[in-house]
Amino acid sequence: MEKILEKRIDTMQLDPMIPLRAKVKKIFWETEDVFTFELVYDEENRRDFSFKPGQFNMLYSFGVGESAISISSDSDKHGSVLHTIHKVGYVTSALSKLKKGDIVGLRGPFGSSWPLDITKGRDVCIIAGGLGLPPLRPAIYHIFKHRKQYGKVTILYGARSPRDIMFPVELEAWKKKHDVQVEVTVDRADSTWRGHIGVVTTLLSYTELDPEKTTAMICGPEIMMKYTVDELMKNNISDKNIYVSLERNMKCALGFCGHCQYGPSFVCKDGPVFSFSNVTDIFEIREL
Amino acid sequence: MANEMKKIDKNGLGSIISALLEKGYKVIGPVLNGGAIIYDEITGVNDLPEGWGDKQEAATYRVVKRSDKALFGYVVGPHSWKKFLYPQKTKLWEAEKNNKGFDIKPSNGTAVKYAFLGVRSCELNAIQIQDRVFNNGMFADTFYNKIRKEIFTIAVNCTQAGGTCFCVSMDTGPKAKGGYDLALTEVINESGHYFILDEGSEKGREISSKVLSSEASQDEISAADKAVKNAEDNMGRKMNTDGIKEMLYNNHDHPAWALIAARCLSCANCTMVCPTCFCANVDDTTDLTGSHTERWRRWDSCFALDYSKVAGGNFRTSIKARYRQWMTHKLASWIDQFGSSGCVGCGRCISWCPVGIDITKEVELIRETAKA
Amino acid sequence: MEDLSGILKNHPFLKDLDENYLQQITSCASNVVFKENDIIFKEGDEAKSFYLIRSGKVALELNGREKGNVRILTIGSGQILGWSWIVSPYKWHFEAHALEDVNAIALDGKCLREKCEEDPKMGYEMIKRFTQILEQRLRSTRMQLLDVYGKS
Hints:
The complex is a heterotrimer of chains A (288), B (372) and C (152).
Chain A: H1 2-12, E1 20-29, E2 34-41, E3 56-61, E4 65-70, E5 81-86, H2 90-96, E6 103-110, E7 123-129, H3 133-145, E8 153-159, H4 168-176, E9 180-186, E10 196-197, E11 214-219, H5 222-234, E12 242-245, E13 261-262, E14 265-266, H6 267-270, E15 273-275, H7 276-283
Parallel strand pairs in A: 7-8, 7-11, 8-9, 9-10, 11-12
Antiparallel strand pairs in A: 1-2, 1-6, 2-5, 3-4, 3-6, 12-15, 13-14
Chain B: E1 6-8, H1 10-22, E2 26-33, E3 36-41, E4 52-57, E5 60-65, H2 82-85, E6 89-98, E7 101-106, E8 114-119, H3 121-133, H4 142-150, E9 152-156, H5 167-170, E10 182-189, E11 192-199, H6 202-208, E12 214-215, H7 218-233, H8 244-249, H9 256-263, H10 269-273, E13 280-286, E14 292-299, E15 309-310, E16 313-314, H11 319-338, H12 348-351, H13 359-368
Helix pairs in contact in B: 9-11
Chain C: H1 4-10, H2 19-26, E1 29-34, E2 39-41, E3 49-55, E4 58-63, E5 69-75, E6 80-81, E7 95-98, E8 102-108, H3 109-118, H4 120-146
Helix pairs in contact in C: 1-2, 3-4
């Protein structure tokens, strides 16, 4: 444990409070209010983008502030990094106005990651809701790249409406793979939508999960994760094999500012990915 | 074999202050200011609040004139040493817009060497608690640790307890058990007014060697011990900490929280005066030209509504949830996070709460009908 | 070809049902096929039967009058379509569209109601199974109401 921590501090090198300059290489809109940045480190302090699927960076917009944003790119690709961002607050609105070549500040990566190593040899069920898909995408890339190391792979995704679906082209491509089941549902749609309608948990009835062999990785709004966990447990999947990625207010990402406390944990450094067995006792507590 | 103790008088204390000033320390000690005893810069013993004490109860703090000339005859005021080690506002860095986008220049933080005079045992414990917060095994806070590394601490053992004190319950006082450079016990009795001086470190010995002192007699040491015992026996409050972590973890939905919330103004006073509360926010401020920006860290409080805000909403909108977070963190989850309680029993949150919410009483209220 | 009782037995809705009840239910069942875009039932029509979907996908649509047609749920293989047959006055509240070719078993409501009246134990068993579906649908609807993915 000590060794891991030392290494952690070492790879951060610089003061973890100080953002490094990163250049916007590309910006593209996924939906009306969600965009993706491709960032590269600015030459002077060029550095490898090493991260683990599930981790996040703090992105800084000059003069406006910082926001914790999960990494949505392939963790094997080290030259640049992708962040998929919901334009919803001051910082993300400011970030959304940047153009190719503009500079942002970046600190990270921070936090825990999806349990891809200990899941080897097991079935994986990935369940995402809304903006919960981007933080899971690096895990999906990893599993596809090392497909033989995993058993049955299922991706269940729920979005608000057809036009709010993240990465629709990729989802279609994943659907065509013969060794993965992909189901997408939306909460509301008009009659042009031919896919599933209903909450994401309804998709569980279209797949058979082996409770002994399946590890579930869930990311989405907390209430969506709660319902999903309930359904998985009904299917006899143990809380030890369920992982959730939690969101809390984050200011420092270092465990100093206190904002992201969740019971005994700091979501920034003990999370964002938690084994559900570590939060079972507190997950039902209101306003914790 | 007991440590050999020295005895000094008021002039000796003055010499300690002089020796520290000579070594380049900025000496901080208790001063009477604005109707309260606060911690501020001092240059000699005459700055100390001679003959002043304080009276504390829930929602009450008053300085009172003492009948003697005690220099440390008060308990604790609204300030704690936190404001020096972890200032209310710190500039983390500044950035300048330029043709590369922008350049970030880290702030150097405070380069000052502080000597703290009059650190109570509860406060020494609070400093040690914050040490674990700002060096959490994964990250170390550069600003805190830079100041912390340099400090010189002179503890003053309590010889009286305040109306809201409960350090005995928290096992944090009234006698300082270590972590100081020098420790004083003030004694005023028929044989005079003197201080028993204990050297707690090499740094402490170096300073005390420059001061005129005599060897304390056994009687004098006993008198000091008796004075400390007086504080121990007269705690204004007590808190039963038996199994407190489990008790609070198991009682998130106890009806008492709503009763407390009905009184709580969520003013955040308790968190500001608490010597261990560490929550902070960051502000980015930009000048009018828009080309210069600074990031400041300032104290924040879990009682603030925005504290738990996220893009999709807010996790703690009710005052009930916010008070519960504060108290459960302080007394329970702190133990899981940092290996000790976050409460040192200084009583400030009780005295400075405008509506007199009393953490010791609220714990009892829950305990009376707690779910196991 | 698999016989009706075999199909019923393997449908998740009737899983582990008493053999005797299964026989009773089979006597009320018939195989049905809907083509893509067929309207299976319409709002206000008599709810004569309900369906165990074997394959294909059905969309439930609510006519919101000036709010337009709103698709509220899709139902696919292994799921149940319709519960109005069990609740007086036995009228459909939605319109059901086949989004794909659908294979299903239709269960005659009147036939089943009569059998349940005769054998309340079987009636209770059916109610238990339908209440599960109702509870799930209600929960899902509430989740949809929360608009969990929307901006707050």
